[in-house]
Give the backbone structure.
Amino acid sequence: MSEDASISEDILKLLQPYIGHYGLLEDSTITIGNLHNAIHPVFQRSNFDTSVDTYNILKPALRLASQFLQKDAMLEWWVQAGLGQEVSDPTFGKVYLKPTPETDDSRDNLRTTRTALMELRHYVRFSFGPLDRAFGHTTIDRTRRTRPKQNKIFNADFKATIQIRLNELFEWWASLYYSDDKTADCQRLRFNFFFAVNIVHELAHAFGILRRGGDAEPCHSHRDMLSSTGAEMGWSWEVWTCGGQIAPHDDFAAPTVVPDLNLAGN
């Protein structure tokens, strides 16, 4: 359609606050991503309510998202999210997570956290649909029961499924960027990065829900409690992983050109 060229850069407009900070500018010398790592079990095909074609297009982004959940260097945030002690601060009237004691076996904490992340595959489902000014939304689906929890982190009495809905624009962008030969490699890399960050952002919320058995969130750390991050697990993970304190993107400016999304059959 005649508006494809301008629509294809809508994601660039939405990413403007991130462009300089994360180094997502155009680069004619860049090569397309070459990740070949296994996709994390939580992102297995059966957990996605979308077409096979869309899932296959998303694989590069899911491989990147998997790195956020598999590498030891990336697990420190998850260890505190899963094993940190909840502490109430009387001055600010907020709850934050205290780091695990230095006397703990750090390797054992990593193993425990990695096991919980692997078990996420049994309790989380992903779908795409319309969202009002948000890229993702995580809710509790009490109509779908799950298997008993077998790790040390998740609440054994919590039997509901976690439903993660991602904005339907992601499906549309995926189809556009990987069907148009004129799409630049940087455009595809921007999409892969942005999708990976958003889906793990939502998983951070899901992880907390499964630990506590509800959706009330503490601050991930004392530092978060004192900063603009606050009690927002997804945003806390983004800031910890990517650095900086740019404005959160849960609330975004709608694209100037809105595509005619025809997702029938997906």
Q: What stands out?
A: Strands lie at 48-49, 85-89, 94-98, 124-129, 136-145, 160-167. The CA atoms of residues 7 and 257 lie 6 Å apart. The chain is about 40% helix and 15% strand. The mean pLDDT is 82.
